[in-house]
């Protein structure tokens, strides 16, 4: 009768799980602390964007960040505080990554067309669209953050306002309120409610045609 080979443990065929990395002892450096804080805020914002304020939880954010809930609570006492900090952090990050530079040495129509095309690029940024949707949805709960978003938008488009002011001084345009006119330009270039309710067009031909229509409409109302 053939002898039986010894039975192997069920776990023998499974690869050994790597031991978790131990955190270095001692207090983290300032750079490490800043990086950790930014990572947690970025992950928190992701969760808020995906689930909304009501659907998100501190537990879920901690799990996504792979830290303990107590670690999150040490930095942010409530979900309300975490949302405020993450939303403001997101606004600053988006503004730092977007470009509204203007080359004012070109003819007026060319400059306006370039501005509108840049705004179309901004409108296609998924981070900006998602953040705008979230803050509009939560504007009644967090009116101060909604106001901060308007301030960030005004700051982002300040180069456009400065250009329009100069064009008025040069007699090229008749615009009573350049700051308000900048907002009108931005809303038209972004496509109005389409910016929030649908995906932006990706066809270069469609974008060029829309940009030309926006500039023609603006010049029709702004020329002296």
Gyration radius, in Å: 26 Å
* Mean pLDDT over all positions: 82
Strand content: under 5%
Distance between the termini: 108 Å
Q: How many helices?
A: 11
Helix % is 55-70%
Q: Which residues form runs of ≥5 with pLDDT under 50?
A: 1-23
Q: What structural class is derived from the secondary structure elements?
A: mainly alpha
Sheet with most strands: none
Please trace the helix and strand order, writing H or E for each element. Answer: HHHHHHHHHHH
Strand element count: 0
What sort of overall outline do the alpha carbons produce when their principal axes are compared?
A: elongated
Brief summary of the model shown:
The chain is mainly alpha-helical and 224 residues long. It has helices spanning 30-55, 58-65, 69-75, 79-97, 108-123, 126-137, 143-156, 158-169, 178-190, 194-197, 204-222. Helices cover 67% and strands 0% of the residues.
Can you put this structure into words, describing what you see?
By secondary structure, the chain is mainly alpha-helical. It is 67% helix and 0% strand. The protein contains eleven helices and no strands. The chain has helices at residues 30-55, 58-65, 69-75, 79-97, 108-123, 126-137, 143-156, 158-169, 178-190, 194-197, 204-222. The protein is elongated. 22% of the residues are buried. Residues 1-23 have low confidence and may be disordered.
What are the defining features of this structure?
224 residues, mainly alpha, disordered N terminus
